[in-house]
Design brief:
With 108 residues, the chain is mainly alpha-helical. It has 4 helices and 3 strands, in the order H-H-E-H-H-E-E. Helix 2 packs across helix 3.
C-alpha cells in the first residue's frame, strides 16, 4: 500500500474532508480521486497486465542473476504472493525451487 493510499484510508476512517477539494469523504463529496467514485475493474486489468507482470518477473530474475526470492518477484510484478505463484506456475521458463526461490530456466 502506497503512502497516498494509506493517507486516503486514514482520512476515510476518520471521516474528514479531502485535502484537495474539501469534500466530505464520508458523504462521497470528494471528486478529485476516481478511486472513491468509480468501481474497480480488476478482472480486466489482470488480463491486460499478465504479459507485463511476466516480463517484470523475468527482468527481476535477470537483475538478480537468474534467481530471486518469491517476495522480490511479487514486488517487481506488484502482485500478491498467491497470484504471483499461480502466474509463475503458468510460465515455461520460470520455476519455483523447493527452497522457495524463483529460478529463471533460460540457458540451463
Amino acid at each position: 500500500m502506497s503512502a497516498l493510499d494509506r493517507a486516503w484510508s486514514v482520512l476515510k476512517a476518520e471521516k474528514k474532508t479531502c485535502p484537495k477539494c474539501e469534500g466530505r469523504l464520508d458523504k462521497m463529496d470528494c471528486h478529485c480521486d476516481d478511486r472513491l467514485t468509480k468501481p474497480k475493474q480488476t478482472k480486466v486489468k489482470k488480463a491486460e497486465n499478465t504479459a507485463e507482470q511476466k516480463s517484470a518477473i523475468i527482468e527481476c530474475l535477470k537483475r538478480e542473476g537468474g534467481a530471486a526470492s518469491l517476495e522480490d518477484c511479487c514486488k517487481a510484478a506488484k502482485m500478491s504472493k498467491e497470484d504471483c505463484k499461480s502466474l509463475i506456475n503458468t510460465m515455461d521458463n520460470v520455476k519455483i525451487h523447493n527452497s522457495g526461490d524463483v529460478v529463471l530456466m533460460d540457458g540451463l
